[in-house]
TrEMBL record:
GO terms for biological process: phenylpropanoid biosynthetic process. Homodimer. Keywords: Apoplast, Secreted. One of its GO terms (cellular component) is apoplast. It is found in: Secreted, Extracellular space, Apoplast. The keyword Transcription does not apply. The keyword Secreted applies. Its main location: secreted. Belongs to the plant dirigent protein family. This is Dirigent protein. Dirigent proteins impart stereoselectivity on the phenoxy radical-coupling reaction, yielding optically active lignans from two molecules of coniferyl alcohol in the biosynthesis of lignans, flavonolignans, and alkaloids and thus plays a central role in plant secondary metabolism.
Amino acid sequence: MTLNLVFTKGKYNGSTLSILGYNQIFHEYREMPIIGGSGVFRLAQGIATAKTYWADNATQNAIVEYHVVVLHY
């Protein structure tokens, strides 16, 4: 999975974080690396964890909580 988090307000407006990793949505807990970003988050690294609270295989819908820890310069 590739996930780009785009910030649209406040001091991070226009900055992004890039997450790349295997995101098996029907597993309850996953870890994925933050591999970079742009703007304020240029050269960022860190980890994103995801926890699935609810998933429906038939509709491919899910409720997922992401927790993101970022180190940036």
